[in-house]
Amino acid sequence: MAKLPNAVIVLCACRGRIAGSLPLSDILRFFQVIAPGVQVIVSDDLCKRNAAHNLSEEFGSQAMIIGACSQLRHKLYFWDEVASKVPYSIRVIDILGELSMSYDSMIVAERIKLLLWAQVTSVSQFKPIYKDNLKLAFSRPGDKVNRREFLVLPLPRYEIVPFIESSKCAGGDRCHLCYDNCLLRAVTIRGNVVTIDNDVCNGCGACVAECPRGAVYYPTCSFEELDSEMEGLLLDDGVSLEPRIVAVSYQTCPSDYGSGADGQITYPPSMLPLKIPCLSAVSPWLMLRAFDMGAQGLAIVSGQRECRSHFNVAVLKDNIEFVQAVLEYLGVAPERIELFEVRETNVIEVADKLGRFAAKIMGFDNTVFKLADRTPLSAGGLKLSSLVAAMSNRLARKAGVSISKGAVPFGKVILDGARCTGCGLCAMTCPTDALALQLSDGYQLLFYHGSCVSCGICVNVCPEKCIKLQRILEIDKICRGEPIFFDSIIGCRRCGKPVAPMSMITSLRSRLQKAGIHTVDQLELCPVCKAETVCYKTIEKEDNVASTINKSLASKGRAGLGGI
After folding, report:
1. Are 524 and 500 spatial neighbours (Cβ–Cβ below 8 Å)?
2. Confidence band (pLDDT; 50, 70, 90) for 255?
3. Inter-residue contact 527 to 534 (CB < 8 Å)
4. How far is it between the farthest Cα atoms of the chain?
5. For 285-298, what is the HEC assignment?
6. Could you report the per-residue pLDDT of 92-148, keeping only the tens digit for each?
7. How far is residue 355's CA from residue 348's CA, in Å, rounded to a whole number?
8. What is the DSSP string of 497-557?
9. 1-127: what CATH class?
10. How many angstroms separate the CA atoms of 232 and 125, rounded?
11. How far apart are CA 490 and CA 524, in angstroms?
């Protein structure tokens, strides 16, 4: 677990509505044990303007996790006294909404412990916000506002959006995966520079899920934050809420016709929400990571409204099908993950389905990952290929298994070696370095299956059209490279330095001869020797011309030109 942040948890009494129903002493004891360095206080009526100001003054730069009511989230935008902290370092948990559900007091307390703890762990991974992350917008509260708030509605605020770190980006001439997958066309490519247009971007997070190099910087939707929040939701120590199920829901497409408090979906007792910006941010990595951390089930709850990013839910269904195939290979029942689509007319039905889903999960034995150590995050993050390999290695699953169901996010390069000339264009243009050249002991083209995202760039740039691409995951090849083309290297006839693969020399010689060009002897010279040969031939030709002219002038009794 990452080092905990300099944070404080503030529990709002909500004029007795929370303090009178929630065992606050039990929650305080929980945090004293699990995070003694995190301060927990009880306040009241945090919706008041002065209350926000006083908290900001008292705790300064500390991150705040506030347990209050749903209205507080909207009122944050009107707290001009704490504009520097809102809404970035303040997280709000709807405790009042939890209390309104039909849980007994013990379950409510357990859920609130986990929801608060998840935000503490998430804040620990919160990255700095730069000016490129800020987009000017206007407040859009989701509930009723008073007259004062109505008058300040036109006042601007800032929203966080992603930007691309040029130092990590492969460049627009090599990679355009973020551009291809941005449904709002907020990503632009000018020359080799890839940028995000803040005026168009709505922060859906699709680019984060698609970028193979981790070049998209998005403080509120990073893999590290989501990873830490899931870790908090799945905490075992001191919490008796089983079987633990993660319910992924969406901030920009809310399920706001629910049957619970404030119109939210009623979740079963052991099902805890993980909110992400949009459907497009639900990647296979996120789904598998939940099970790797010990989740016993994963419910994906989509909103009934049209997605602001125009994401097609069919894409998500294909991703789920792939993840289910991987789970089945790992010996985990694929029925442990399910999509629930919420519409205005089926809210009660979805709530019932969620209950039946939780009951089904309760009927399963715990997965092997329940008590196992989760796969650690490296400094460069945890790739999907590394996650799949680590989960597979724990179980010592049989080799030779391939997965082709659903939207497989991996590709396999199939090369026709008889036609390949070893030009290396495929390796030079591969945005993920799934293809690489190795020049020791001959000329080799290596393929790294775990790095291939099946973008098809290699197929398009190949001049010989000898590359085919298959969407498939071969488990035993996911974390190692294998040679797919081998050839000897022709050395320079003069100095012996490497020139090119034999296949390339043979192909060029054949093409030049067919075109009637007979200077094929130049093919086996390195650039330096080739330049010197051309220079010597030019001097020799000029000397021959000068000699001929001098002889002609001498025969006529005239002075010669001299040596050239």
Report:
1. no
2. very low
3. no
4. 125
5. HHHHHHHHCCCCEE
6. 888 888 888 888 888 999 999 999 999 999 988 888 888 888 887 765 554 455 555
7. 11
8. -EEEEHHHHHHHHHHHHHTT---GGGGGS-HHHHHHHHHHHHHHHHHHHHHHHHHHHHHTT
9. alpha beta
10. 12
11. 7
Q: Are 234 and 291 a contacting pair, CB within 8 Å?
A: no
Give the residue carrying structure tokens 């990255």: 127
Considering the chain, tell me which residue range(s) the CATH 3.40.50 domain(s) occupy. Answer: 1-127
Identify the sign of the CA torsion 46, 50, 53, 54.
negative
- pLDDT band at 256, cuts 50/70/90? very low
Please tell me the distance from the alpha carbon of residue 358 to that of residue 331, in angstroms, as a whole number: 19
Reduced to 3 states (helix: H, G, I; strand: E, B; else coil), residue 109 is helix
Q: Please give the helix or strand (H or E) that residue 414 lies within, else none.
A: strand 411-415
- pLDDT tens digits, 351-380: 899 999 999 999 999 999 988 888 887 766
And the tokens for 164? Answer: 């691309």
Tokens describing residue 420? 């390949």
The alpha carbon of 151 is separated from its chain's Cα centroid by a whole number of angstroms, namely 39
Express each pLDDT in 466-498 by its tens digit: 999 999 999 989 988 999 999 998 888 888 888
The helix-helix angle for 384-395 and 284-292 (nearest 10°) equals 30
Beta carbons of 102 and 46 less than 8 angstroms apart: no
Q: Residue 299's closest CA among 290, 307, 308, 310? A: 290
Write the pLDDT tens digit of every residue in 490-546: 888 888 888 889 999 888 888 888 888 766 677 888 888 888 876 655 545 445 544
What CATH number does the domain located at 410-487 have? 3.30.70.3270
d(CA 433, CA 430): 5
pLDDT of the residue at 562: 43
Range list for CATH 3.30.70.3270 in the chain? 410-487
Contact indicator for 513, 476 with CB cutoff of 8 Å:
no
Burial class (CB in 10 A: 0-12, 13-18, 19+), 532: middle
pTM of the model: 0.84
Task: Give residue 364's identity as a one-letter amino acid code.
Answer: F
Between the alpha carbon of residue 511 and those of residues 178, 484, 501, 518, 534, the distances in Å are 39, 25, 16, 10, 21
pLDDT confidence of residue 535: 63
Q: Cα(179)–Cα(195) distance, rounded to whole angstroms?
A: 9
Q: Is 359 helix (H, G, I), strand (E, B) or coil?
A: helix
Check if the beta carbon of residue 9 is closer than 8 Å to that of residue 63: no
Q: How would you classify residue 136: left for phi > 0, otherwise alpha for psi between -120 and 50, otherwise beta?
A: beta
Residue 342: HSE in the Cβ half-sphere, 13 Å Cα cutoff: 29
43-65 per-position pLDDT tens digit: 887 777 667 667 767 777 778 88
Burial 94-115, CB ≥16 within 10 A → b, else e: bbbbbbbbebeeebbbbbbbbb
CB 469 within 8 A of CB 411: yes
Q: How far apart are the first and last CA of the chain?
A: 78
